[in-house]
Fold this sequence. Notes:
alpha/beta; 11% strand; 6 strands
Amino acid sequence: MKTLIILGSGFDIDLGLGNSCRDFCKSHYCPTTGNQYWSDFEGTLRDEVIKWYTDGKQDLAAKALNELWQVYVRNISWFFTDKSDKFKCNERACAYKFLKRLSPTCKTKVYTFNYTNPYEYVDIPQLKEFTYLHGTHSRDTFNKDLMVMSQGHEIILGIDECIPQDGLSNPNIHALVKKNHPRYKDTEIVYDLSKAHNVVLYGFAMGKTDLGYFDRFFNALKNNSYPCEKLYYVTFDKNSFNDFLSNLKENGLNTGSIRLIPVYTKYGSKNRKFRKMLRDI
Length: 281
């Protein structure tokens, strides 16, 4: 495989969807405050589950965590529905140019951690299939109250298996684990990372709850045992890029000797590095 593309919430934000975590936190849909990234909600939930386990696995506390999780899923779905109704595409955005570049003939595979299908919002035909790792939110439900109410069932938001099995067997906690969601499907992302010559991470913050997909990849880069030659990290500016590096360091990961190329969308789609990345797709 020539190139593997992985999309995060920064891609949607660049496209103009306005569904950033910051927007959510400022809205009346948000039940808590203090989160900077979508992955932070899962991180907060993860920390609370670990605390629940170490504090004695009380049933009432597990039920409260399950109820908080249900509020997250439902309210994030409602928030996306509301934003869908107000969307205006930014055709000058790097994300828009990126979508126009994708075609059936380019030797790429696209995974997305987002819940949205960007082709529902732009005038570009979907010529490349995306693999959704955590479910989807459909735009065409925003005027259908009953369907909006059920949208949360399509979203896979939760935690990894961060505690021993005797805690995960609690039915309230069991439901929080992403792999236990009825819509969860195993994908080939770990295998594809081991075969790609170029990897593009577009607007992906690398949150702790998603590290399970990538730890083998970064450890292989450190040992030069994967064929990856270039890793493009697409984000708004240098501060966001440094946040990504900090997340890796915090979790004991690094990119080894691989050629790591930051691409900043603040400089637009005519930026040399962005154009070079498109040629590698």
